[in-house]
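Board notes (copied after class):
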Amino acid sequence: MATLVVYCQPGARQTRCAGLHDGKPKIQLQAPPVDGAANAALIAWIAARCGVPKSRVHIVHGHTSRIKRVEIDGIDDTAARSALGLP
């Protein structure tokens, strides 16, 4: 199981990884921070990039924060970072 701590920026022009923010991957999300839309977009984007079903991606901490801890079942940390284009 991979665990990532990411910094999310909702309301962006497009969903993408935009480098690092305080040493954490910065994920810009096109979805607004309303009614869980940004969290759902983050889960969908990570699942698609890592090649796992959305049901295997869980936000375990930071549901209402920009800094989130995400667990991805089925892959390890190295594979997750590689799939997201992180060092």
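Comment from the instructor: The chain has a mean pLDDT of 93. The helical segments are 37-50, 77-83.
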